[in-house]
Amino acid sequence: MAYWRLSIDSNTGVHPSLSIATVTKIQRPSKEQRIDTIVESARKVFISSGFEKGSIEIIARDACIAEGTIYRYFDSKRSLLDEVLRRHYSVLFDDILHTLPSIEGPGNRLRYLIRRTLLTISEDRDMCGLRTLYARQANDERPSLARDQNLRMAVLMANEIKAGMKDGSFHLDTSPSIVCYMIGGAIELTEYSYMNTGKTIDIDKVTESIWRTIHSGIKSSDATAESLTSLVERFEHVADRLDSV
Question: How far apart are CA 165 and CA 119, in angstroms?
Fold first, then answer.
């Protein structure tokens, strides 16, 4: 459906008749445009007010639409949160899948994945908090999208670890799952600290620290490298110390 507007001649000061009026057609926003507007308003409201307080009424007001319009596309506020997070992760993984093939060597690609994840955390603290909140609301009936995306990232990392084992870069007895747990734990601890202190993450420094620790345990050229079991124990020790603070 289209709206129609009559253009009045302001020079004459006389209300024109339909016979001399210029009729301008104004297109209604498309379905995709409406959804984009709703999702962006939901993102802003959830970040500023929180998920619990960020009502559909407030979102509709921000989007300048009726509440009923939102329910035409989303069955609940949780569905809106799903879409906000889905789009957030989509940007991340689209960038990764575009960049990863241009990086040479499984070690370099694994390091890039660590850095890119840290960069996502650092770039938007508000979304970081929203992801954390989202993860806490997960249950067995409706699993967390955040958990699904963490698994997706782990699969990408595990593929690079397996590629390194195949080409001789990493030890053949390396456990991809343990290495992914270690990387994930280190990133999670960094995110936890960032959310609690607000202190800027030194992306290059933290990436290098995580990578150096991980790489020393899996690279095949270092016969004296620290074992994976020892590295896991070190990470667990750090986690225990943080929990006790």
Answer: 27
Predicted local distance difference test score (pLDDT) of residue 22: 52
Is residue 98 over pLDDT 90? yes
- The predicted-structure confidence for 151-166, as pLDDT tens digits, reads as follows 899 999 999 999 999 9
CA distances from 60 to 30, 38, 80 (A): 17, 7, 12
Contact criterion met (CB below 8 Å) for 231 and 214: yes
Helices 176-197 and 125-136, packing angle to 10 deg: 120
Question: 25 and 108 share a domain?
Answer: no
Query: What CATH number is attached to the domain comprising 231?
Result: 1.10.357.10
Cβ-contact 45, 59 below 8 angstroms: yes
In a domain, 54, yes or no: no
Which whole number is the average pLDDT over 83-105?
93
Give the DSSP per-residue string, 211-244: HHHHHHHHBTT-TTPPPHHHHHHHHHHHHHHHHH
Q: Domain limits at 145?
A: 90-244
Ranges of beta strands (E only) in the chain are 2-7, 22-27
